[in-house]
Amino acid sequence: MALEVVEVNVYRSAKRADTYVYIPVDGEFENLPEAFKSHFGQATMILRFLLDANKPLAQVQAADVLRAIAEQGFYVQLAAVDADIYPR
Fold first, then answer.
1. What percent of the chain has pLDDT over 70?
2. What H or E segment, with its residue span, contains residue 37?
3. From CA 2, how far away is CA 69, in angstroms rounded?
């Protein structure tokens, strides 16, 4: 079941650069799996917004975030790989 609109909190990882987790506002960071939390480290909430499938996001499709939230209760955004640092 895909979600149409969800209000989310976005947390930044203190341990991993440019790593974020999106959690519905009715969810809790503390309730995420222990293995994930140990890799993510200290979480700092940086943003709360209403996410819908048509909302443009910088590095991911909103529909993918909504799908992950519907399936597992959260979405992890990892650092984007800079293509220029790897020679071809």
1. 88
2. helix 34-40
3. 9
How many residues does this entry show for the chain?
88
Please tell me the distance from the alpha carbon of residue 1 to that of residue 58, in angstroms, as a whole number. 25
Closest among 57, 58, 52, 6 to 27, alpha carbons compared: 6
pTM of the model: 0.85
With contact defined as beta carbons under 8 Å apart, do 30 and 42 qualify? Answer: no
Q: Say if residue 27 is exposed, middle or buried (CB neighbours under 10 Å; 0-12, 13-18, 19+).
A: middle
Q: Which two tokens stand for residue 2?
A: 């895909």
- Domains of the chain by range and CATH? 5-85 (3.10.510.20)
